[in-house]
Amino acid sequence: MEILHRIGVTSSPEEVYAALSTVDGLASWWTKDTDGDSDVGGVLRFRFVPGGFDMKVLEAKPSQRVLWEVVDGPEEWLGTKVSFDLKQEDEYTIVLFRHEGWREPVEFMYHCSTKWATFLMSLKRVVETGKGEPAPDDVQISNWH
Fold first, then answer.
1. Using CA atoms, how far apart are residues 116 and 99, in angstroms rounded to an integer?
2. What is the pTM of this model?
3. pLDDT in tens, 19-72
4. Which among 22, 60, 61 is positioned nearest to 41, based on CA atoms?
5. Angle subtended by helix axes 13-21 and 107-129, to nearest 10
6. For the CA atoms of 135, 18, 8, 47, what is the dihedral angle to 10 degrees?
7. Beta strand residue intervals within the chain, DSSP E
8. CATH fold of 2-129, please?
């Protein structure tokens, strides 16, 4: 089971990669409460109102790919992997997002799919305009946030 999304961003792969591979970049579109080590082998910590996630950085290929493994967080996320693959198409940087390794399509997976989509739009906004909508300023869709 996996969540898949695709967005096009009118910024360079380098700019998108910076938003995906640095603590400040991640805090600008996903959650303001982000810290940790963004180097390969490091662990990034993302905190939200209902809890959070720790991601081990498995790959960080400049302007091409970021891959994390969830090492702490909700049971449904443990051991799953989150990747962002980047490629240039005309004036767009295409972001292919994947959250893979879910054991089953539980209701929380449906929620996370929607939230990933809203955060990917926040990523698009931050690299195109300089202003994202990271948590806690993100779109609230249910009592899970």
1. 9
2. 0.96
3. 999 999 999 999 999 999 999 999 999 999 878 999 999 999 999 999 999 999
4. 60
5. 130
6. -20
7. 2-9, 33-36, 43-48, 51-61, 65-72, 81-89, 92-100
8. Alpha-D-Glucose-1,6-Bisphosphate; Chain A, domain 4 (3.30.530)
